[in-house]
Amino acid sequence: MLAGGLLLGGMATMLLTSPRPNVEGMVGQAEQLIEAQQPTEALSVLNNRVRPLLDEPYVSADTRQRFHAGRARAIAMGIESMDVEAISNHERIADEYAKAEQAGLDLPNEDRVRLIRSQIRLGRLDEASTAISALTDESAEPRVQLRRELIEQALTTPGRDGFADEQLAELGEDAAISVDDRAWIVARQSERRLADGFTDEAIARLLRVMPRITGASAGIRGELLLLLGVAYAQADAVAEAQKQLDRAFDLVEPGSALYARVLYERGLVLAESGGASEAREQFETVVASYATSPSFLPATLALAEVVSLLAEQDPTSASIDDAVAAYARAAQEARFADADQDFVDELTASTLRRFEEQFSRSNFGPAAQYVQIAEDLHGLAGSPPIVLKAQGRVSRALADQLLADASALAGREVGLGDLDPTSRVQAQRRYMQAGDYFRRHADAIAGGSDDEAYADSVWLAAQMFDAGGDTSEAIASFIEFAGTLSEDRRLPEARFRLARAYQSAGQYALAAEQYESLIEVAEDPGRGTGVGPFAVLSFVPLAETYLEDSDPSNDDRASDLLDAVLRGEAGGVDSETFADALVAMGMVRYYRGDYPQAIETLEEAVARSEESPRLIRLQYLLADAYRLEAESIQRTLGEGAVAPTIARSLRNTRESHLSRAIELFAQVRDRGAGIPDVRRSAAERVYLRNAHFYLGDCAFDLARYDEAIRYYGFAKDAYADDPASLIALVQIFNAYLELGDLERARTASERARRFYDRLPDTVWDDPTLPVGREDWERWLDSTYELASLRASSFTE
Fold it and tell me: What percent of the chain has pLDDT over 90?
């Protein structure tokens, strides 16, 4: 215990008698490093060695003052030497000087200058102004410079224009200012006048001042001449503006930001006076060599505008692609530099002007590029409504252009289903893209004062989604339109289009509800304003809806609707509704097996559809109705219970039907062959294929066997790998058998057998194949007949 006590006592004595760290000496070392222009090393000493000891009781107030002042000086010196103008650094400088003053330090002028500079950078303009006024004449030169910096900061701070004017006046009263300073004051005041629109006053002041500043430096005189040139340009005195800018060009030092502005302003004047090529050179110099100057971004926009102008006036010197690229560059630089909102708005407006120019000329490709640049400038989420609407317009126009080009190529109006797969996908994508942009535009202006624009965009969004095949979005937009815009004149059409969308989506009950409601409202004089045309248009699709659903109980209602149209109760006989009803009724009768009535209806429908894209379908259904009715007559004759006179009439009718079927199937074949394969719809491919084979069937049934062999041969060659070719081979065999040409019949039979053997059974599951049970029975019967004939011939 005694030994332990002695040990502890010895340690305490050692600690109490050990020398304290020389904090004052460390601060002195840091001050020497600052004097030697080594701010980084000074900060290292102050931060790492002094700061941990600063709160020790033995550290004097004087040492604390020197520590805080030293940190502020080192940081300020680091800013000056490394040109790092971070706001956080200026906050540290102001904070350290405040702590030094709180510790009792009376800041010398050189420290006050540093503090004021940081206050200016931090936007503490009123504090800085008071501190500048307190500087003694010993600091006259930095006082003038700080006042200039304060004014420049105020001129770029929103809402401090009046403060800047006061500071300019105060600087003008400072006895320490030089002739260059006075010229600088005039330059700033002239800029203020020009910005406020007092162009004549600015010109008059500059002209009066110029003789009194002949002793000023070339740079400041060049700046005043530059401003004089800008003022003349604003006054539309182009020739005088160009003269003053040329003088400024000779005085301003190349490589400076002021030189870049002279080039820029000269370019503007040259462009205004018709020298687009010369203006382009000025702007290109700024863009290529002065990326850090304030004139850089404006020059990128001016260059884009002048290149666009040259593309219009002299395509040999610039193209539309060059103009688009120049605007894209301007937008890219604006995003990179985080340009202020005024420049972004100006660039957006200019880009949209180019868009409108190209759009009005139906140059939709360049128009789309321009509006995409505008969108990229803001980002999709931040794009102004005008950009979103322009995107919708051009997307729609590009989709419509695809259809227009296809219609011109086909010589008839075509729809999406008629396009080749690639074009169809492109058109659908464009329509849906248009719908999305119109939808976004409506959302962007919702709740504003322009209800008409909102309604238009919701309406267009619904139309575009509908055209593009996005049924769910179309339904949503039509529902919104109908639910929120009850007074809009397009409401009946919206409800009709909603019904069509429901029908397309297989939501037959909802579709029928809308159609029935339109018809019901149209019959009420008090509620039916504007509904009539769409009620009339609802008859046929409502009938189709009832026929397409799985409820047979409403099929009679469908027939009644079609009969009403055909009686002229829903539009005249020349109306589109009447033509649609003919088609629908003809198809109903065809699929029900009522071929005589189908023939009557479809003949009229075909006669009314000479220029319609649905003609090929109507001709095919009519031809097939004639063919099937001829088969029905043949079955009646085969039963044998028909009077001779009637039988003769039936035979004549059958032959007439088959001849008419041949005529129509040939028209289907020829019309279908004229449509490029990539543009044929799936249904048109079936019509074309079956027409080839049914031509042979009809000729065969007419006992025109040579003609049938020729038709079947064409069909077999056209569809060599199609399972339907089997029927052609079998019928060729049958035709030769009927002609008594057993050798050719045997060869045809073997070909049919080999073709059949190499086909998998699954191919016969296709319901569109022109092969039925009767065809299989006929092949079987003919095979046995051939075998019998060959045996009989061998016996003889």
Answer: 33
Number of residues that make up the chain? 796
Least confident of 57-71, 211-225, 711-725: 711-725
- Look at residues 537, 456, 526 and name the one whose alpha carbon lies nearest to residue 492: 537
Q: How far apart are CA 341 and CA 206, in angstroms?
A: 31
Dist. CA 543–CA 615, nearest whole Å: 21
Q: How confident is the model at residue 9 (pLDDT cuts 50, 70, 90)?
A: low
For the purposes of burial, counting CB atoms within 10 Å of the CB of 128, is it exposed (0-12), middle (13-18) or buried (19 or more)?
buried
Question: Could you give the 3-state DSSP secondary structure of residue 22?
Answer: coil
pLDDT in tens, 349-364: 999 999 999 999 999 9
- The strand ranges marked E within 58-117 are none
Phi, psi of 611 (to 5 degrees): -105, 10
Q: Is 316 helix (H, G, I), strand (E, B) or coil?
A: coil
Is residue 662 over pLDDT 90? yes
241 vs 505, more confident? 241
User: Quick one: what percent of the chain has pLDDT higher than 70?
Assistant: 90
C-alpha 654, offset from chain centre: 59
* Contact indicator for 732, 775 with CB cutoff of 8 Å: no
Residues β-bridged to residue 571: 569
Residue matched to tokens 């139309």: 463
String of DSSP letters for 730-767: HHHHHHHHHHT-HHHHHHHHHHHHHHHHTS-GGGGG-T
Rg (CA), the chain: 46
Instruction: State both tokens at 440.
Output: 């976004």
Per-position DSSP letters for 198-237, written without gaps between them: -HHHHHHHHHHHGGGGTTS-HHHHHHHHHHHHHHHHHTT-
Pairwise CA distance, residues 154 & 140, whole Å:
21
Query: Which tokens is 437 given?
Result: 């942009």
The predicted pLDDT at position 790 comes to 47
Closest CA to 498 of 541, 450, 532, 449: 541
Residue 769 region, left (φ>0) first, then alpha (ψ -120 to 50), else beta? Answer: beta
Interval 579-619: pLDDT, tens: 878 788 888 888 888 889 889 888 888 888 877 778 888 89
d(CA 648, CA 643): 9
Task: Count Cα atoms within 13 angstroms, Cβ side, for 422.
Answer: 2
Contact between 177 and 171 under an 8 Å Cβ cutoff? The reply is yes
- Distance CA(679)–CA(416), nearest Å, equals 10
Q: What is the pLDDT of residue 95?
A: 92
Say if CB 81 and CB 38 are below 8 A apart: no
Tokens of residue 720, six digits? 């060599």
Statement: residue 495 has pLDDT above 50: yes
- Give 592-661 as a DSSP string: HT-HHHHHHHHHHHHHT-TT-TTHHHHHHHHHHHHHHHHHHHHHHHHH--S-HHHHHHHHHHHHHHHHHH
